[in-house]
Amino acid sequence: MKIERLIVGGVALLVGLLLGWMGRGLATYNVHAAQIATYDDWRVACPAADAKDASCELSSDLVDRNQPNSTALARMSITTDKDGKQIVGFTLPFGVALEAGMGLRIGKEPVKVYQYRTCNQVGCIAVTPFDNNLQTALKGADDASVMFAGLDGKPQGVPVSFKGYQKSVGAWHAAEQRRHSWFWRLFS
User: Fold this and answer.
1) Domain boundaries, given as residue ranges, for the chain
2) Are 167 and 173 contacting, i.e. CB atoms less than 8 angstroms apart?
3) Which region holds residue 37: left if phi is over 0, alpha if psi is between -120 and 50, else beta?
4) What architecture (CATH level 2) is domain 35-180?
5) Of 45, 51, 102, 184, whose CA is between 20 and 30 Å from 147?
6) pTM above threshold 0.70
7) Edge-to-edge, what's the strand order for the sheet holding 42-46?
8) pLDDT in tens, 97-154
9) 173: helix, coil or strand?
């Protein structure tokens, strides 16, 4: 009889703790606040959950650390477009040879060339689907470079850092789920 009461009491305590923790997740999730988290060289930036047409973005500034006073030369961003498809975008500086496009080399694979879509006040942008092949290639990579040609025709390569990439991808997926579903907010 005492053991049964102890078991029932223990189960009731665990259920109460779980419900309290889940209730805290719902109660403390601010749907009106944007969130930014940094994972080494990668960032996850999410607009407020009440901004229904926006998506979280996973990004990294691409820096040539071999140059003195290293500054960001390019940016790699992964997000979801308005049709719900995941895309990766590359923002490169002005002064690139537009006709040549830009390239992405992952590991020992050949360079994949992507054409620029547009240039705006931020820079010149190339976009490609973030499909399963690209996701798998980046997940298993420890070496990648974004390549482009300047107006002088000289090729340049900027390394992609994978420091914090795996952790940031998981955080990006989780943040996107929390933005669109109250159920996932229970576990935040």
Assistant:
1) 2-30, 35-180
2) no
3) beta
4) Sandwich (2.60)
5) 45
6) yes
7) 35-39, 42-46, 57-63, 72-80, 86-92, 124-129, 116-119
8) 898 899 999 999 999 999 999 999 999 999 999 999 999 999 888 899 999 998 888 8
9) helix
